[in-house]
């Protein structure tokens, strides 16, 4: 019996020695985190910063004077055939942008969701164009005339238009990925822009009536005109200052942690505004920025 107690004591001593020599595993120390991220940087929190960059502006003036021509030709047989005229073209211009941003990130493991507000000021983002069109409109719908008379409405339109985008605010939702010191992200949201828009159109309308008669097999053609039509020959101008246009924004970017809460960012942003006086503006913004996260 004493031999059995001696053997048990020896095995107990060996087991205790082996336990003391085992490595200090994290699971024994409670060292496991509640997530799977191995990042060395925490992107969660509020932040703010400033940015600047380059803007490419594409302005579509093709339908800019439609509202004015509809007014000139209202209640006439010329309103319908001239309503879809494309009098001017698209134009492109470039400029610089400066702004600021403020936002908040929420981080779950490697996924980052954020909400951000931005302000952008555009330096001299101004563009203008002009154009003209002339068409012979024959017997338009609603035109009343004898059966042997053909009406030729000769309509000439000359127009100019200009637009300048001044600044913009945007509210953007962001989705990012924690890449350690890097955070690539995508964003989308709504924007409100402030711009000056002007447009002018001049119409010159004449009417020529061609009468065709046949008597005894002989056809006679009589031409009356061209006669001016003062009611539809006029100039209309419209200008709006600090007009607001709503739109949407979308884009991609990446942020890099420089030191502690200080970070830099590079991003591309696409902006599409709703038309102002039938003038549609699209912006492509490329920016670099510097921010600080609390």
From TrEMBL:
Protein name as it appears in the record: Outer membrane protein beta-barrel domain-containing protein
Signal peptide bounds: 1-19
Entry's family note: Belongs to the Omp25/RopB family.
Compartment annotation: Cell outer membrane
Main subcellular location of this protein, as a coarse class: membrane
Top-level taxon in the UniProt lineage: Bacteria
All residue ranges annotated as the Outer membrane protein beta-barrel domain in the record: 7-294
One GO location term (cellular component): cell outer membrane
Gene3D superfamilies to which the protein is assigned, alphabetical: 2.40.160.20
Keywords tagged on the record: Cell outer membrane, Membrane, Signal
Pfam family membership, one: OMP_b-brl
């Amino acid at each position: 019996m004493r031999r059995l107690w001696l053997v048990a004591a020896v095995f107990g001593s060996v087991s205790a020695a082996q336990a003391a020599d085992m490595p200090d595993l994290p699971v024994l120390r409670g060292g496991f985190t509640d997530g799977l991220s191995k990042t060395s940087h925490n992107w969660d929190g509020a932040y703010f910063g400033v940015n600047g960059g380059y803007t490419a502006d594409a302005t579509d003036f093709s339908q800019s004077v439609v509202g004015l021509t509809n007014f000139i030709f209202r209640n006439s047989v010329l309103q319908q055939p001239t309503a879809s005229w494309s009098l001017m073209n698209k134009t492109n211009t470039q400029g610089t942008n400066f702004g600021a941003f403020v936002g908040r990130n929420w981080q779950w493991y490697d996924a980052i969701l954020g909400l951000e507000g931005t302000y952008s000021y555009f330096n001299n983002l101004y563009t203008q164009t002009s154009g003209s069109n002339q068409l012979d409109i024959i017997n338009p719908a609603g035109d009343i005339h004898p059966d042997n008379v053909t009406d030729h409405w000769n309509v000439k339109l000359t127009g100019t238009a200009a637009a300048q985008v001044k600044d913009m605010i945007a509210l953007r939702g962001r989705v990012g990925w924690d890449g350690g010191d890097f955070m690539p992200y995508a964003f989308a949201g709504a924007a409100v822009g402030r711009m000056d828009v002007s447009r002018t159109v001049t119409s010159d309308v004449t009417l020529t009536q061609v009468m065709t008669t046949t008597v005894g097999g002989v056809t006679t053609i009589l031409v009356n005109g061209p006669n001016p039509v003062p009611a539809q020959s006029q100039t209309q101008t419209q200008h709006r200052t600090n007009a607001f246009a709503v739109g949407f924004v979308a884009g991609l970017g990446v942020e890099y942690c420089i030191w502690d809460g200080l970070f830099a960012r590079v991003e591309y942003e696409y902006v599409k505004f709703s038309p102002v006086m039938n003038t549609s503006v699209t912006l492509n913004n490329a920016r670099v920025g510097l921010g600080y996260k609390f």
